[in-house]
Amino acid sequence: MSSISLHRASWVVPVSAPVISDGCVVTKDNLIIAVGAFKELRNKFPDAIVHDHGHNILTPALINAHIHLELSHLPIPQYKQEVESFTDWIETLLSMREERGSYGKVVEEAARKAMQLQYQNGVIVLGDIGNTDIGAKLNSEFPGKIIHFNECLGRTAKTRRTILKHIEAAPQDKIFTAHAPYSTHPELIQKIKLRAAVNKHPFPIHVAEPASENEMLCCGSGELYTFFKGRKFIDDSYKPPAGIDNQGSVQYLHDLGILDKQTICVHCIHVTSGEIEILAETGAKVCLCPGSNRYLRVGKAPVDMFLNNGILPALGTDSMASNPEISLWREMKILQEDYPKIDPATIFAMASLSGAVALGIDDIHGSLSPGKTGHFLSLSFDEIITDETMLYNLLVQNSEMKLTWVNK
Questions:
Q1: What is the per-residue pLDDT for 143?
Q2: CATH code of the domain covering residue 46
Q3: Both 179 and 39 in a single domain?
Q4: CA pair distance 108, 138, nearest whole angstrom
Q5: Do 378 and 336 lie in a common domain?
Q6: Given a cut of 80, is residue 237 above it in pLDDT?
Q7: Which of 135-139, 153-157, 388-392 has the lowest mean pLDDT?
Q8: Residue 30 region, left (φ>0) first, then alpha (ψ -120 to 50), else beta?
Q9: pLDDT above 70 coverage of the chain, percent
């Protein structure tokens, strides 16, 4: 017969419910069966084994909703303190990838180390994007779960045909997604999204990351257009699609029929108030990557506007190719630096529950509540926490902290 365990701590942060002082999380068979005040649950489960975590904080594990493990061997920020432009970064990425390759032991080992670092930092689920299957292969080694999305991009007619043939020949359990409106032909985006809808899986796509994306979609000009034209990434006959509102990336995707509750719009920096209303109306999810945005100098997402429209974004680290440090704790800290008026409790919910909702796994991850995984975090700080405000400030400010996995 399985034993019941009571995990007691000075503070329990369910995320989906108020913080509990002198709280307790009760687990059985590595699932949570109850959360509440220690005294009440001790009386309810008198024969349970008690694990006392002292002055620690018990929280759900974090959800990294957007990462590129396969780019871990291309740490551009280590070689370039800053990039001159978004296309300068793309050119650097392509050059380094050509030099170092996309496959092989070095590439896989770098991805493995990045994956291990995520777990050490308290992440239990990775929404991994890649042009290769490295993330999928590493899933069996990860103590949590890697949801790997095979990313497709291409704008020429020949490339579209090749990709579509590849997708048609692939097994149904292989998850495909599109890279971005600027890099993926609208027909390809629509067909991949249709496949995602049929198979009922999330559809993450980079949206409105550089300002030049809107200029390319709207006018067929600008930094990205010139860059792609020079590399023959687009057909000579390229023109902004007719019959579609190209004034903004979100509106563009909406007109293509892409936005729904399973779509995850990653970055969403250069969006209008009207487009944010569209996201709210369609139920499309948003994932922010503030660390990557800061390094690439592409701007800051309008987080306050998202929140005012009832959208709680998820958080991701993006890759080592565009972020000096792939840590969700750092992402939370940057977000608070950029938006000091946002409640730290809201920021922590972005790094946990909202990521689980975006990836469609909130039935088992994202909060401490009955029925969810008993694989969660016990965090200790040097300071003695006196109230809820201090607690959340410590969580998002990334002060000196020791992290331990419960039910590892």
A1: 96
A2: 2.30.40.10
A3: no
A4: 9
A5: no
A6: no
A7: 153-157
A8: left
A9: 97
φ and ψ of 133, to 5 deg = -100, 20
CB neighbour class for 79 (10 Å; exposed up to 12, middle 13-18, buried from 19): exposed
What is the four-CA torsion angle of 252, 255, 259, 264, rounded to 10 degrees?
Answer: -10
Nearest CA-CA partner of 352 in 23, 18, 13, 7: 13
The answer, yes or no, to whether residue 1 has pLDDT greater than 60, is no
In a shared domain, residues 353 and 234: yes
pLDDT digits (tens, 9 = 90+) for 216-233: 888 888 899 888 888 878
Residues 53 and 67 in one domain: no
Are residues 389 and 347 part of one domain?
Answer: no
Do 371 and 19 touch, CB atoms closer than 8 A? no
Summarised one tens digit per residue, pLDDT across range 265-319 is 999 999 999 999 999 999 999 999 999 999 999 999 999 999 999 999 999 999 9
Total domain count, the chain:
2
CA dihedral 292, 294, 295, 297 (to 10 degrees): 120
Domain that holds residue 352: 62-358
- Pick from 42, 44, 38: nearest CA to 8: 38
399 phi, psi to nearest 5 deg = -70, 180
Is the CB of residue 189 less than 8 Å from the CB of residue 164?
no
State the chain's maximal CA–CA distance in angstroms.
74
115 and 23, same structural domain?
A: no
Place of tokens 């809201």: 346
- Length reported for the chain: 408
Specify whether 246 is located in the same domain as 205.
Answer: yes
Q: Shortest CA distance to 360 belongs to which of 254, 258, 261? A: 261
Q: Are residues 56 and 67 in the same domain?
A: no
